[in-house]
């Protein structure tokens, strides 16, 4: 083999100790090997110079067919350097991941022993490579290949070739199909496209439409290097491979067989005669006598192409700005900016663009891509001349500080070629040998441009853009986020949304997270104990059957908004799915008999569905309806009601629950054409509940216990998400090892989680520190992601921790051992606690199934209320379930999945609700009685009453509490212009009532007010009146006030553990309530909010002996009232009134009446309210004749 070394003969150093060592040790040296012929090179080995301290610690490899136009070899499409030696004696061999085919090899030193010099012994491994080569010139050249008539056709056909070219467009191959259609493999803008042309398009008639693009692969294929193309037809699909990347294409039907008819190649395969130069970094520059750039290519939108001095003084800059070319000239105090050339304006697209800059008699012409018509002219008002002095391309020297070179812009990163000097091409090889000009940090005789977006690392439809050094993914509208659009922004199920605190509504769910199945829009119904996912289709209404004329059957197809794979994944993930199927018939048979062929059937399941001959409510394959399974069909001889063939209307309805048969795709109804036959059908929406993946959990009770699974494959992108809860301070959640690579997530302390891995660049860690302990036995969520750009770690809702990946490092994660969950291969630092909903790249690991057969690990993990109990609002109680939790709203005046929905209704003057309390003996006979029930003879030592109201009526009685002995509590709105809130207490029938006034006025203003009353003494009953309520036992002036009725609205009425209004509205049949008049449920309380200037009034009630027993306060908008002393009696009443300005609908008015036995109460001093227009004296002789165990609203 012939050796050459550069740059220039002056660099040759006598080799006395064995090996190559240049005279100057810098990064501009190289060793070139001529193998004599094209060779398939599979490995290289290096060794230091014999008997010396000279060796290389890293280097680059270049390959070429001609000794020019070098190409850098890269590992994993990214890493450009090879690690070298650590001493002069050992041999380090590297097998090339992809063999290189070339005649010339060039090694460029990067780093060497700092105590020695560049020194090298080199060996290459490979074998001769021979192939037939044809050179096709621009014009009409081509090859034709036709199968002979006797050639046997096969289901697999392969066409393989290699090509290289300098031109970025041309037809490479054409295959003829049936009916004149053809497939074309074309090079367009350096990319290889597979397009289909119809017969008219192939003939290029005026009516031809745009070709149909089937595939696009590769980029920068006009680099004059060999590229390998393989087309492999397998039956109805085609695998197109360009170099190492393959795309699968579904072939049109007319190409089930094909002939390769011709290759009308319109580019030249001759060797390159131009020498390119690469500006790899911002410090790169090339200094020349006056010369002009001819062509360039780059990914950067900005950068300096050239700067030069003017003859009259001044400086000019030719630079890229926002992907457009601009000329900026400074001359003295004058400044002229030429706005740029807009033809081919996207000059940062990686394509070669031509530039021509000329100046004659003060007239400057700038041309960009002149062949495409992009010419701009500009004539300044003062003369400008160029053509003398130095030109700096790409940037200025680092030490340049004078007028010779001033760079106002970023340096250029890209490639240039065809530079001209006095209208002659610049000899860049002479520049490389330091015989012409000056340069720094350049790569000469090669274009080192890379397309980081081909293939795109952006997943899930993310749009890739790039600069010279990095790529960026635009994830907008994709439903995914992260550096490569890898992780879904949506939850995996309705169940997951519920546990984030959401209520019913439409949500996007992504059943496989970062997997290939996209998000789908569903409705999540969270109103009941179970959370249901609802997927509609195009017809869920009851539809009358009308068979088309001349047909004996009526068929209908149901279309779902979700795609096939989305539907099946959602069904598979759910614990239970169902779909209603009903048939209403009048002399229209359905399934006939078990032995006969069915008149009707439906198709359900994956794809178009499979024929099903059973009906809703029956078992698969039974050819029955629900009544046949239950034995109650109208005709015992048949298994469906409709099969009785009667003139009366009947129906067969039920739920389909066999998941493999869902959803219903089509319905075929057969007996609909006979005279007198009438029918209607209904197929309900698909309903699914439960999430088998969300609650899939395992409990690890020892540090030495673990679960193991097959190796995790996340070479380029890996995301891991799970929930954990523990009382331990440390433990490894997950670990997977390779020979050198690994991935691990662990709890390193009670407040820190670490995500660590190694892909060949050395260990990398991402940490998240929590301000609260993580070993609190509550669920915490961990989400880790690693891709070619960065690694991220999320813990609960804390800020994301990010660690960027090395720019030119390894990025393939290569693992080969088992995946350990909850422990490590060494059985040290294992995790003690629960791990739940573990997903790796969108695939859920079945922890429960594996735990069933693993010692030291138990399936499932109870105890969810500690984490999710805070979601239950308004006195709702969290109750544990096997999978999840439930908010028990029985003790709350609210309803809804989290007891968050206000129960509100409008009352009119004729409306009343009567609530009857249960007798003690009734409860003893009914074991299902709610624990919140209050019994008629119970003695209450205190009560808590709350309600919200809105009214414009004044005066009005809002609340009335009375005992069997005429003691009472009343909440009312008084009159006389103030419309203030007033509370009256009477705890001794022999004394007058005590009046507590609020300083807040005008509460009858149509706005929303919320009131809470708490008493901490004896038993009471509660009554809120409408005009139809009986009032025989009420204080007369309150009775007169109550007789006026209440026009307004009440909501969230609560008395101790009873919510009578909620019972009347939501459970009227199962609750002891009776309703008269129109009671209309309303949403009037949904926008209740507190007034920001609420104040508190306090009123103390004291016995005759002046002993303070307890306190009462009215919390309203206003000021504090003075204390007042009353005779004996122990009460504490707190009333909260919050005023809002929001306009919301009406609240409920309710009246409740309960009798009870009161403890002996001492007399209370009277204080009448002068603002109240009614007499407050009670008629002690009037005794109510109504049932004393009733409660009116």
TrEMBL record:
Residue ranges of domain EGF-like in the record: 449-486, 862-900
Domain Fibrinogen C-terminal residue range list: 485-537
Highest rank taxon of the organism: Eukaryota
SMART domains in the cross-refs: EGF, FA58C, LamG
Transmembrane segments: 1124-1150
Protein's cellular compartments: Membrane
F5/8 type C domain mapped to chain residues: 1-127
Cellular component annotations (GO), alphabetically ordered: membrane
Membrane topology: Single-pass type I membrane protein
Entry-linked Pfam families: F5_F8_type_C, Laminin_G_2
Keyword S-adenosyl-L-methionine listed: no
Protein name per UniProt: Contactin associated protein like 3
Native species: Salarias fasciatus (Jewelled blenny)
Gene: LOC115405451
